[in-house]
Amino acid sequence: MMSKRFLLTIPLMMAIVIAACSGGGGGGDAPTRGDVIVYVAVPLSGFQANGGQTILGGVRLAAAEINNDGGLLGYRVVVRPLDDESDSDVALSRTDEIRQAIDAGDRVLAVIGHLNSGQTLAAMDVYQDLPLVVIAATASEQSLTERNYDNFFRVNANDSVQANVSADFLVDQLQAKSVAVLYNNTEYGRGLAASLVDDLRARGATIALQAEVEEGQSIYTDEVAQIKNAAPDAIFYAGYEIEAPYLRAALVESGVDAPMLASDGAFLAATIDESNGAAEGMYVNAFAPSPRNAADDQWIEAYQAVEYRNPDTYSVNGYVALQVLAEAVRKADSFERAAVTESLRSNSFDTLLSSLRFEPDGDLVDPQIWVYQVVDNEFQQVAN
User: Mean of the pLDDT values across residues 292-309?
Assistant: First the structure.
């Protein structure tokens, strides 16, 4: 049990670290004009709760820094978590809470989320008609920016970019002439796999195998047998950290030694932790560098003070999403949807990652994909 003295010092530690992170002394008066609400819609329970929590943590840190520096146009940024449970029906139902808040007179600025493309697609049916902006931190399904949403943006690359980078890495870096492509049965998994197959064939590689698995699947006896029979030079998996470690473990245990590249959905500590030691050597795509590659020790300490845990891989994405949103508001000098969306399309934004700009459809100009390899049970960057 913690001592009373330790409990009493936590708020003081938080204040000191956050103040240091924002330039010391707060940099401005405390927000006094009221509250502006930012919802963070991600899974906070169930099998992807950790992934959602990392995004939420990044947003919370950015909000703490903004508020310590005088707020956003003088308003305190209030972060409201919204648990979509990684379920599209739940995500759609959760939009009622946002609509009710708007109807009750709350100043709702934006939704940051969702973690997955399926939940984002479902909720955008409602968000497109609400007076708010949506900034996705990790949703990558390509059609999200092909549906003419006026208020949708994302700070991550889409799946066509990831497929292109993955095909280059498999063919040029891993020297693969034949690739087994496996994917989970989600919009994300299917869309990314289809794009990758096209890009591999365009580079002269053959598709040794295409196989769909269940979201959350943990036993891969049949799939491993198919892969062994196909004898590919490399394996690509489009899915999540709730499947990738078990697939990797099954492959290693069966003696398959072809290199494996997993998609961004597996770029979480669980891919290493749940693989029974088999993750060593595998490659994983990422939408952002890991916190230790992107940020300094001060940023990490500030995150720990706000969240009481270490940042994980998507913490950077959540932080950058609110950075971009806040700067767009400042440049627009307005919280109104039309003004903020115009600001997002017209300006560049300095972030923890780099200077970001948006295409008219809401995708990034010059988006990046990073590639990591598991070395000594840690993600080590090998390409970007």
Answer: 92
| Digit-coded pLDDT (tens) for 168-179 | 999 999 999 999
Identify the burial level of 105 via C-beta atoms within 10 angstroms of its C-beta, where 0-12 means exposed, 13-18 middle and 19 or more buried.
Answer: exposed
Per-residue model confidence as pLDDT tens digits over 12-51: 344 444 444 433 334 567 898 999 999 999 999 998 898 9
Tokens read off for 17: 């670290």
Taking alpha carbons only, the member of 305, 262, 277, 226 closest to residue 9 is 305
Three-state DSSP class for residue 62: helix
116-120 mean pLDDT:
94
Backbone angles phi, psi at 168, to 5 degrees: -60, -45
Neighbours of 241 (CB within 10 A): 24
The alpha-helical segments, DSSP class H, found in the chain are 4-21, 49-68, 88-103, 117-127, 159-168, 187-202, 221-230, 244-253, 269-273, 291-294, 297-307, 315-332, 337-346
145 phi-psi bin (left φ>0, alpha ψ -120 to 50, beta other): alpha
Q: Look at residue 371 and give its three-state secondary structure.
A: strand
pLDDT over 90, % of the chain: 85
- CB of 212 closer than 8 Å to CB of 192: no
168/360 Cα distance (integer angstroms):
27
pTM of the full structure: 0.88
Instruction: Supply the DSSP symbol for 266.
Output: G
- The DSSP letter of residue 325 is H
Q: How confident is the model at residue 83 (pLDDT cuts 50, 70, 90)?
A: very high
Strands 260-262 and 355-357 come out as unpaired
Instruction: Give me the phi and psi of 149, to 5 degrees please.
Output: -70, 125
The answer to whether 325 and 43 have CB atoms below 8 angstroms apart is no
Tell me which long-range contacts 262-265 makes (C-beta under 8 A, separation of at least 24): 262/236, 262/237, 262/238, 263/162, 263/166, 263/189, 263/192, 263/236, 263/237, 263/238, 263/239, 264/138, 264/140, 264/156, 264/162, 264/369, 265/188, 265/189, 265/238, 265/239, 265/240, 265/241
Residue 297 C-beta-side C-alpha neighbours within 13 Å:
0
**Sign of the CA dihedral running 65, 71, 76, 80:** negative
